[in-house]
Design a protein that fits this description.
This protein has 217 residues and is an alpha+beta fold. The protein folds into two domains: 128 residues, Jelly Rolls, CATH 2.60.120.10; 80 residues, Winged helix-like DNA-binding domain superfamily/Winged helix DNA-binding domain (Arc Repressor Mutant, subunit A, Orthogonal Bundle). Helix content is 44%, strand content 25%. Helix 3 packs across helix 4, helix 4 packs antiparallel against helix 5 and helix 6 packs across helix 7. The radius of gyration is 18 Å and the shape is globular.
Length: 217
């Protein structure tokens, strides 16, 4: 990452001083379906998922935003709307700024650009990883690739393996790897029977990361 702690702290402090603090329960919409963004959000605490609805009326998970991240970044920088839905995955706290206030701030403070560049590059990396994941031929390979990427972003080492500390429904995984929920559930069960992972109430524990990576070699 390029940003220093001081540069990041300056950005956070601007949101805290000038933003509107909002609290969301699990499942609350931050940006509702069909609504245009009504501000720039900084996640002070929690997780927010971004998704759209397919023509088959299914959720298509795009990305999960975490603490210390800002969204929607594309709209912030370009003003173009993509009608993405943002919903709290867990109880979350955000600070919201008007776009024009935020744009004026980053134009006046060159240091604020550096943390934003870090966030933009991370988003670019994650979308690139998703494209690479979709290149795998089998659903099992795509699921493994997705879970390994999620473990890098949300994983916590435990005595039993790496716990992905974000709730993921089978439908979330399925939409991310271009598969049906039924096929995804079947493949996850197969990996669990092999002792490679464990599903615990929408949380996934990767028990053998090296063995999972071998499936992609």
């Amino acid at each position: 990452m390029l940003a220093t702690l001081k540069q990041t702290a300056e950005l956070v402090e601007f949101f805290r001083l000038h933003g509107v603090k909002q609290t969301f329960r699990k499942g609350d919409f931050v940006i509702r379906p069909g609504d245009a963004p009504h501000g720039v959000f900084f996640i002070y605490e929690g997780l927010v998922k971004a998704y759209d609805i397919t023509k088959y009326n299914e959720e298509n998970l795009l990305i999960i935003r975490k603490q210390d991240e800002i969204f929607p970044l594309i709209w912030v920088m370009t003003g173009k709307e993509h009608h993405i839905i943002y919903q709290a995955l867990v109880p979350s706290i955000t600070y919201r700024l008007e776009r024009k206030v935020f744009v004026q701030f980053i134009k006046a403070s060159q240091d604020a650009i550096i943390p934003l560049l870090d966030m933009t590059m991370e988003m670019y990396r994650l979308h690139g990883e998703r494209i690479l994941t979709l290149e795998y031929r089998t659903v099992r390979e795509r699921i493994i690739s997705f879970l390994l990427t999620m473990s890098e972003r949300f994983g916590k080492a435990t005595g039993d393996g790496i716990m992905i500390e974000v709730p993921l429904r089978h439908q979330d995984i399925a939409s991310s790897v271009n598969a049906t929920r039924e096929t995804t559930s079947r493949e996850l069960s197969a990996l669990e029977r092999k002792g490679l992972l464990v599903n615990k109430q929408s949380f996934t524990l990767l028990k053998d990361v090296d063995a999972l990576r071998k499936h992609l070699a």
